[in-house]
């Protein structure tokens, strides 16, 4: 989900909560441009990493496959979770709930960021770096009935990445700074696109179609999503200040983009990249088509928000674009059967 504060445009806006000076056109353009760029990075690189992830034999890097049954149930589960959070914020103290959530996402964020930067950091280690291998193994039972619960392999380089990620985690926990929030948000998004795999295009259409209805209902039909977004203090969204040019890094008038508006279309775009590769034609037509469609859908969301100054569910525009554009290409190339096989 995405939002913008103080009545300014954004994929999903929240009404002004305080009387701040309106954002300048330059500040708005910088904020939205940065959000679009930050959304594209985890989708592009997450899709590329999903290809190697699908071929990996390391149990710690195996993807989680989403079936058609999972896809059909996902909007219901998401709705129950959203409503549950809404009721929690209405009944209990917002401060204590956010403290608990901060600790939870602190741990998850460190692990996600460590996994994200590990491939990049490997290039900076010298060739003679003493890199030892480790394995974290938990089993249940004994003998022939022994069953693996956790089997995670890592090395010294991974521990260094974990230490660096912990520094960001402490920074986020103590300051809740928007840069630390974005580092965690980008890591969550990239890991989601990389590790969550749709088993086929039909499943992707079911998932996106269900969440299309979910997003429209909870934004236009109720105030639940907007209320949760305003109350929820966790790195589940990317933010960028619209007053950065005036206040620098201490700016606090944010435009926001929810991670769901990145990960959900992103796993579909990653699926189309793997479909391109399966065709063995040395082209990435469907991947680039869906990637451009995402840019178009996100841009249209921001434009509509800017014109009407009203909350907009981003998936209302992203889902038709990400499904429709590749489908038109498949129709033109006569590959619809292969796509939905």
UniProtKB/TrEMBL annotation:
It is a multi-pass membrane protein. It is found in: Endoplasmic reticulum membrane; Membrane. One of its GO terms (molecular function) is aspartic endopeptidase activity, intramembrane cleaving. The chain crosses the membrane at residues 29-51, 71-89, 96-117, 195-220, 254-273, 285-308, 314-332. InterPro entries: Peptidase_A22B_SPP (IPR007369), Preselin/SPP (IPR006639), Presenilin_C (IPR042524). SMART domains: PSN. Keywords: Endoplasmic reticulum, Hydrolase, Membrane, Transmembrane, Transmembrane helix. GO terms for cellular component: endoplasmic reticulum membrane. Residues 1-20 are annotated as: Disordered. Belongs to the peptidase A22B family. PANTHER family: MINOR HISTOCOMPATIBILITY ANTIGEN H13, SIGNAL PEPTIDE PEPTIDASE. This is Histocompatibility minor 13.
């Amino acid at each position: 989900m995405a939002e913008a504060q103080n009545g300014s445009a954004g994929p999903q806006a929240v009404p002004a909560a305080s009387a701040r000076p309106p954002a300048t056109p330059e500040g708005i353009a910088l904020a939205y441009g940065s959000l679009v760029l930050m959304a594209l990075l985890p989708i592009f690189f997450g899709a590329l990493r999903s290809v190697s992830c699908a071929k990996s034999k390391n149990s710690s890097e195996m993807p989680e496959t989403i079936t058609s049954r999972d896809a059909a149930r996902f909007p219901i589960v998401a709705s129950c979770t959203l409503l549950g959070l809404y009721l929690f914020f209405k009944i209990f103290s917002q401060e204590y709930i956010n403290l608990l959530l901060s600790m939870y996402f602190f741990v998850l964020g460190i692990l996600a960021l460590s996994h994200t930067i590990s491939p990049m950091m490997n290039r900076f280690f010298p060739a003679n770096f003493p890199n030892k291998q480790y394995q974290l193994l938990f089993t249940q039972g004994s003998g022939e009935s022994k069953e693996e619960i956790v089997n995670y392999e890592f090395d010294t380089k991974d521990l260094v990445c974990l230490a660096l990620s912990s520094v960001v985690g402490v920074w986020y926990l103590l300051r809740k700074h928007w840069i630390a929030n974005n580092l965690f948000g980008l890591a969550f998004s990239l890991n989601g696109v990389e590790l969550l795999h749709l088993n086929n295009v039909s499943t992707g259409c079911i998932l996106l179609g269900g969440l299309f209805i979910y997003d429209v209902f909870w934004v236009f039909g109720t105030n639940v999503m907007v209320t949760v977004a305003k109350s929820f203090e966790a790195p589940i969204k990317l933010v960028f200040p619209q007053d950065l040019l005036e206040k620098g890094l201490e700016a606090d008038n944010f435009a926001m983009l929810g991670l769901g508006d990145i990960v959900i279309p992103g796993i579909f775009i990653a699926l189309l990249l793997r479909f391109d590769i399966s065709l063995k034609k040395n082209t990435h037509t469907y991947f680039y088509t869906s990637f451009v469609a995402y840019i178009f859908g996100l841009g249209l969301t921001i434009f509509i928000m800017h014109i009407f100054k009203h909350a907009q569910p981003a998936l209302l525009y992203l889902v038709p674009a990400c499904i429709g554009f590749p489908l038109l290409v498949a129709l033109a190339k006569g590959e619809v059967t292969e796509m939905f096989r």
